[in-house]
Amino acid sequence: MLVGGGGYTIRNVSRCWTYETSVAVDTEIANELPYNDYFEYFGPDFKLHIEKSNMTNQNTQDYLEKTMTRLFENLRELPYAPSVQMQPIPPDSIYVPDKALLEDHSNPDVRNPSAIYDRAVEHEGEYYDGSKEGVKDAQSYKRRAGSPLVAAEDKKPKTEDDAGAPPI
């Protein structure tokens, strides 16, 4: 585990973590840094190590020892984390390797079991309707302007007897 010490400034935080990472992986890094996506973080001189400043170190040896003692006392007071033996996780009882492949090879005349669809979780921000019949996304399913509230099929009589019968 690598723990940062804090007290970083914007000018040296990227340098500190780069140096600490190089120490952790036991790799020497040159002071001249190659150009990369994070190169601008190493400005203004774009070197790994910063030049020493004329600021004096005001940390006394006594102060550092007291800080270390207090740190170790605080760590001793922390509750320990119990270790757990690693075990393999058993696969699910219903394993579908590729849902798209399963749907492609399934019989188009037979409805797929709902367990297949229950495995997939759609984000509520999706703007398309689901593949289950009758399930519409509330955000995208809107009645067109001017369309009647009742569908035309619902108004048609179901049988010929219903067509001639007076309404009840």
UniProtKB/TrEMBL annotation:
What PANTHER family does this protein's entry cite? HISTONE DEACETYLASE 2-RELATED, HISTONE DEACETYLASE DOMAIN-CONTAINING PROTEIN
Region (Disordered) residue ranges read: 126-168
Species the sequence originates in: Ancylostoma duodenale
Q: Which InterPro entries match?
A: His_deacetylse_dom_sf, Ureohydrolase_dom_sf
Amino acid composition bias (Basic and acidic residues), ranges on this chain: 126-140, 152-161
- Could you identify this protein by its name? Histone deacetylase domain-containing protein
Domain of life per record? Eukaryota
